[in-house]
Inverse folding.
């Protein structure tokens, strides 16, 4: 089923219409090059190469030669029209020797030298092929804990985490794309202070996002009894401890913690000497305010939607947090470009719902075929991924669609539209997966899944929808990324090579030209300010619609994330933007609101809290 040699399959349709920035990115990172670094592939040939591989899978399910040619054309037009694009590894590797097509992986880190370094090897293989990896550090015993085999003590999770980070740095030198990881740790791990402190050094762990895993019970304690003492647990022994205030974060060990008595009840004299739940929460909030890390992962919410609980609990997500996966599980993502489905035929622009439904149906089949076509670098991943067949269908171009529809991002109308939109996509995706289950059979682990035991629904795929950030594929599609508002209507984007590309939103430019107020001088002014909200020369009705990331309050960002999460199988990648002058109290409020509204996680970013931002003004 896998093409191991690029054989330049014929282009079965029209050439794609691409922007200058799209062509630049494709030439730098995606198109096949010869030994001299010269592109020997056109964008149309790239899409044909991918479509050819995806269509070839149809033969496994009874398609003949003529059927496969028809599927090749359908899959090509799906991508060449820019209505849908799969994740970057598929575009890069389909029909090429690597054959690795998935972006998202989660690997276990077992509490042994053998287990840790086996996972490091697997990480290298995945990242060499362009995949991203997520890990839970929870199983690793804390710093200073006993190692029975040597009689010594362990250096702790952070030291091993550093090896993972350095591995990514080394692999990145020859990789297609930046190496990306997610590191997660439970708030109750004894080394939680070290975990939080490690990413406050902006030069350390630069290829890792991190999230603290928090349970419903912990959040309830924070709300109802915040002065309760924060209890941590040694994952090796199950013993529980308190964290003394005044610990040296870099040097403390498990022996510096206060061991609770056997009945696990803190004694009265401990009051005021140890971290409370509120203390830990405030530390998390302060760290996020300073650097953007950590995010939060509401792990109970994640596991409530775990479709295969008999296989174990979900412990981690992919690097951007939108795809919770079991250890050794992988998932391929793909996103529908919503801007392509706004029609202007009627007096008032609206979504072409039937056309969207057809695209969702074809995209689900496309992604299901990828599960079979992908050459997974790790055998355990092959087995589990093909047994659960999770796919991640999401969207991009949402902000563009709002522009075209004349809806302000920070409005209840936009939130209601988002909820209706994802509910429609999720339903059509399930309908498509159910049809595939009748045609090809349900995913092998379906019998013990909640789809059968709780919902009586036979599906081909254990997960269907998630909302990815679509950082690079949205440049190819020349649309806004994921469900984010635009960073600015005019901005500079830094790409992998270090060069900066000028990005001018084409929808705003067209509206401004039609309104007679566009000029190069206006574009330069927006490039300096990042917002048009104080530009009175632009009509108020235009300013109301064309709001960007820092024009939207954190509350509306979170409401939008929650709206998409409501009807999404997996999770939602979304950045909650804060102005540079934001206080920690605002981040505290945002984290609590995200939990109350049912988000599975939250990532915040305070403007200018890090150097070298990928999108900048002039």
């Amino acid at each position: 089923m896998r093409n191991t040699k690029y054989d330049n399959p014929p282009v079965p349709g029209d050439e794609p219409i691409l922007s200058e920035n799209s062509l630049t990115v494709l030439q730098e990172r995606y198109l096949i090059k010869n030994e001299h670094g010269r592109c020997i592939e056109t964008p149309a040939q790239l899409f044909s190469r991918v479509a050819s591989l995806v269509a070839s899978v149809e033969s496994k399910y009874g398609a003949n030669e003529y059927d496969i040619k028809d599927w090749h054309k359908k899959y090509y037009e799906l991508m060449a029209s820019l209505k849908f694009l799969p994740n970057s590894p598929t575009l890069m590797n389909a029909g090429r020797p690597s054959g690795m097509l998935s972006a998202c992986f989660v690997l276990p880190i077992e509490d042994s030298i053998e287990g840790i370094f086996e996972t490091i090897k697997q990480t290298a293989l995945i990242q060499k092929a362009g995949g991203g990896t997520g890990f839970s550090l929870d199983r690793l015993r804390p710093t200073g804990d006993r190692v029975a085999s040597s009689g010594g003590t362990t250096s702790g999770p952070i030291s091993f985490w550093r090896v993972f980070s350095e591995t990514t740095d080394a692999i990145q030198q020859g990789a297609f794309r930046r190496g990306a990881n997610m590191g997660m740790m439970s708030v109750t791990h004894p080394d939680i202070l070290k975990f939080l402190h490690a990413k406050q050094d902006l030069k350390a762990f630069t290829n890792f996002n991190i999230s603290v895993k928090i349970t419903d019970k912990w959040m309830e304690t924070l709300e109802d009894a915040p002065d309760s003492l924060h209890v941590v647990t040694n994952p090796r022994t199950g013993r529980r401890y308190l964290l003394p205030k005044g610990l040296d974060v870099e040097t403390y060990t498990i022996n510096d913690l206060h061991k609770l008595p056997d009945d696990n009840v803190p004694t009265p004299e401990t009051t005021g000497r140890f971290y409370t739940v509120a203390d830990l929460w405030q530390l998390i909030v302060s760290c996020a305010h300073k650097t953007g890390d950590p995010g939060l992962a509401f792990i109970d919410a994640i596991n409530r939607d775990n479709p295969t609980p008999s296989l174990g609990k979900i412990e981690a997500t992919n690097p951007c947090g939108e795809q919770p996966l079991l250890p050794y599980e992988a998932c391929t993502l793909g996103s529908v470009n919503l801007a392509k489905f706004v029609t202007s035929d009627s007096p008032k622009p609206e979504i072409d719902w039937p056309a969207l439904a057809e695209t969702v149906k074809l995209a689900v089949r496309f992604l299901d075929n990828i599960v079979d076509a992908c050459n997974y670098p790790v055998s355990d991943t092959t087995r589990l991924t093909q047994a659960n067949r999770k796919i991640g269908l999401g969207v991009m171009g949402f902000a563009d669609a709002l522009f075209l529809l004349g809806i302000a991002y920070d409005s209840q109308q936009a939130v209601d539209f988002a909820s209706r939109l994802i509910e429609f996509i999720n339903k059509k995706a399930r309908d498509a997966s159910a049809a595939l289950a009748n045609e090809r059979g349900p995913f092998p682990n379906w019998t013990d899944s909640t789809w059968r035991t709780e919902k009586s629904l036979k599906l081909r795929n254990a997960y269907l929808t998630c909302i990815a950030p679509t950082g690079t594929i949205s440049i190819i599609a020349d649309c806004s990324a994921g469900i984010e508002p635009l960073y600015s209507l005019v901005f500079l984007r830094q790409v992998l090579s270090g060069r900066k590309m000028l990005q001018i939103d084409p929808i705003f430019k067209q509206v401004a030209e039609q309104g007679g107020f566009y000029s190069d001088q206006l574009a330069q002014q927006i490039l300096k300010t990042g917002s048009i909200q104080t530009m009175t020369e632009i009509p108020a009705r235009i300013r109301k619609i064309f709001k960007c990331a820092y024009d939207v309050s954190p509350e509306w960002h979170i409401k939008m994330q929650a709206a998409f999460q409501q009807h999404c199988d997996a999770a939602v990648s979304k950045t909650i933007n804060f102005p540079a002058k934001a206080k920690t109290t605002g981040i505290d409020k945002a984290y609590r609101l995200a939990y109350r509204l049912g988000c599975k996680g939250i990532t915040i970013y305070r403007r200018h809290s890090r150097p070298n931002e990928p999108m900048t003004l002039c």
In short: The chain has 21 helices and 22 strands.
